[in-house]
Amino acid sequence: MVKRVSLWNAGCPVARSLDAIGDWWSLLIIRDAFDGTRRFGEFQNGLGISKGVLATRLRDLVERGIFETAPASDGTAYREYVLTAKGRGLFPVIVALRQWGEDFLFADGENRSSLVDREKGAPIARLVIRSADGQSLAWNETEVVG
């Protein structure tokens, strides 16, 4: 088995972000947390992930400050996994992945879930990359410096 290489000291924010998130299971766990999943068993049932893999991913996400554990909201002895501010900051990442998947990974008319405004029930607007003065920018109108 290939040992995972840490990207934590990389000079690239994308590499460091991937190091913090971990892998695709972690992104699916985070996605489910945005949808209201909080308990270990709920994550396991919703994702079909093994207990061992889930326990490892949740432990890593807690250690990296993306989740914190809290007493169960219903007063039972269970613990719940709650997104921290750092974890909630991943919402645009999840939305960007969702929108990319909608654009490129589904056939016309194929069933898929949708992200809507909770209050209005309408689909959310597309994410747009903007300059500091608010102008929309395409990929070829940006560059990495430093």
Kindly describe this structure.
The protein is mostly helical. It has a domain at 13-88: Orthogonal Bundle (Arc Repressor Mutant, subunit A). Helix content is 40%, strand content 7%. The chain has six helices and two strands. Strands 1-2 form a two-stranded antiparallel sheet. The radius of gyration is 18 Å and the shape is globular. The two termini are 35 Å apart. The model has no long low-confidence stretch (mean pLDDT 93).
List the main descriptive attributes of the protein structure presented here:
146 residues, mainly alpha, two-stranded antiparallel sheet, 6 helices, Arc Repressor Mutant, subunit A
Q: Please count the beta strands (DSSP E, at least 2 residues each).
A: 2
Secondary-structure element pattern, one letter each: HHHHEEHH
Q: What's the shape?
A: globular
Number of separate helices: 6
Rg on CA atoms, Å? 18 Å
Low-confidence stretches: none
Structural class: mainly alpha
Largest sheet: 2 strands, antiparallel
- Specify the CATH homologous superfamily of the domain at 13-88: Winged helix-like DNA-binding domain superfamily/Winged helix DNA-binding domain
Looking at the structure, the CATH topology of the domain at 13-88 is Arc Repressor Mutant, subunit A
Strand order of the largest sheet: 1-2
> Kindly, what is the distance between the CA atoms of the first and last residues, rounded to a whole number of angstroms?
35 Å
The CATH class of the domain at 13-88: Mainly Alpha
Portion in strands = 5-15%
- The CATH architecture of the domain at 13-88 would be Orthogonal Bundle
Helix content: 40-55%
